Input
Amino acid sequence: MSTKRTPVTVIGLGQMGAALAGAFLDAGHPTTVFNRTPGKAAPLVERGAVLAGTVAEAVAAGELVVVCVLDYPAVRSLLAPVAAELRGRVLVNLTSGSPEQAREEAAWAAGHGIGYLDGGIMTTPPGIGDSASMILYAGGAGLLAEHRPALEVLGDPVDLGTDAGLASLYDAGLLGLMWSVLGGWLHATALTGADGVSAKEFTAVAVRSLGTMAWFMTTYAEQVDAGEYPGDDATLDVHVASIAHLLHAGEERGIDDRLPRLHLEMMKEAVAAGHGGDSYARIIEAFRK
Ligand code: NAP
Output
């Protein structure tokens, strides 16, 4: 069995780029690195990375070129001068940005004969190298399949297809989901904490409830896709009544009520429009306005 590992280049050695380069080194990939501030490469060089003196030198060393810097303008300023050197190679852009920026970058790469994958990293640097961490990829047909053995050392690669904007779009949506979940958890932790329940005690139960949320989401996704919201498990009328208990408990304990009030407002709008008998999935229509 061949043990040959694809030579990779990592451009950008901030917190995330350094973690990416470290994971490639741990997996035995010949790894060349470049950073605007070269001093940051020292710990990686100690572990076996080669520090390139210029971006062009870095690009020339890797079949797979991974870039992870602050934003897309920084990516372009680094890579535009080396478009010719990138021709025929595969560029994996793990820098966060908008779907529009990703599609623009993909078009730029296509115009220069560069294979392009856009990625969204769904973890923080300590999660890099863990197969439980998702990394979303979108872009050039077949590129993820071709480079999966190298890319899966960073985390579990999720293939979103050939529209390069989709990794950023999912990333943005999942950030919103994260803030909603963390906000809801902290609100509930403040509420239960007011009666002396520790965050740890409450969280043990809260984490179990996420499994049920996942089941709701999977069930309601079918309703959303069908555009029909039968309230055959729980109706919006029941949700409106339930949220009153949460608001009451919060008021008694002096807990900020902005989050539940936002939910109540959206539910009430749907009920006022005659949808009180529908499921919670009906709220999608409010978000689509
Ligand atoms: P960071 O630690 O602040 O590092 C930023 C990197 O970008 C450094 O290598 C920096 O170079 C480089 N850079 C910034 N502006 C530049 C420019 N104009 N020209 C050349 N290089 C430039 O940030 P990070 O946490 O590694 O994040 C990098 C990317 O990963 C971001 O898009 C971020 O949204 C994304 N991301 C991060 C996380 C996370 O948890 N950290 C999670 C998911 C996604 P210098 O060292 O020379 O300053």
